[in-house]
Write a structure and sequence with these properties.
The structure holds two protein chains of two kinds. Chain A is mainly beta. Chain A is globular, with a radius of gyration of 13 Å. By secondary structure, chain B is mostly beta strands. Helices cover about 0% and strands about 50% of the residues of chain B. Chain B contains no helices and eleven strands. In chain B, strands 2, 4, 5, 6, 9, 10 and 11 form a seven-stranded mixed beta sheet that branches. In chain B, strands 1-3-8-7 form a four-stranded antiparallel beta sheet, with no helix packed on it. Classes of the chains: A mainly beta, B mainly beta.
């Protein structure tokens, strides 16, 4: 069965520090991969996506993610975190017509 | 930029009552979805809808749930006889095609009393 794992439930970083949120997936072939962000009381906003080609993809708000087939990972990174980045981050895999979401990583940014 | 809109933002309903959650997908999108997020838990797929019929549904989407596209713009989720455990955020999403990024609405918070 397909699954998405986000091992870190909660991460706290200082403003200006770098960030990496981990995501691992379980799927036989290379899936389509996404990262979404959810601010409190808001819906899900797409940060970036990977379908094929260059394994390093750039997204909005200065985020990037790298697909590593050998590790079945699609980690999200940002070189310098801003206070407004505090939110819940979800990794997702789409297989056919169905999205599978990870359990999310809650990001706290401290001054 | 076009958005998916959902109404109401918050719905409070007595247990056993029927509730209809409404969504207006992006106008040129063809695939429509409902998801549920129980407080503190992950987003769970409920159902996908294409060409006026359900294309996939999860085990959560049992007989108390139904979806409809009553006209060219709305996409609704009906819960026939609500239970306490139906309390959650319900998100609608739409996309141009399968495997494409889904655009989400801001959700409807459903509270069952």
């Amino acid at each position: 069965a397909q699954s998405v794992t986000q091992p870190d439930i909660h991460i706290t970083v200082s403003e200006g520090a770098s960030l990496e949120l981990r995501c691992n997936y379980s799927y036989g072939a290379t899936p389509y991969l996404f990262w979404y962000v959810q601010s409190p009381g808001q819906g899900l906003q797409l940060l970036l996506k990977y379908f094929s080609g260059d394994t390093l993809v750039q997204g909005i708000k200065g985020f990037e993610a790298e697909f590593k087939r050998s590790q079945s990972s699609f980690n999200l990174r940002k070189p310098s975190v801003h206070w407004s980045d505090a939110a819940e981050y979800f990794c997702a895999v789409v297989v056919g017509n169905q999205f599978y979401f990870g359990t999310g990583t809650s990001l706290t940014v401290i001054p | 930029e076009p958005e998916v809109t959902q109404t109401p933002s918050h719905q409070v309903t007595q247990m056993g009552q029927e509730v209809i959650l409404r969504c207006v997908p992006i106008s040129n999108h063809l695939y429509f979805y409902w998801y549920r997020q129980i407080l503190g838990q992950k987003v769970e797929f409920l159902v996908s809808f294409y060409n006026n019929e359900i294309s996939e549904k999860s085990e959560i989407f049992d007989d108390q749930f139904s979806v409809e596209r009553p006209d060219g713009s709305n996409f609704t989720l009906k819960i026939r006889s609500t239970k306490l455990e139906d309390s959650a955020m319900y998100f609608c999403a739409s996309t141009l095609g399968p495997n494409q990024p889904q655009h989400f609405g801001d959700g409807t918070r459903l509270s069952i009393l």
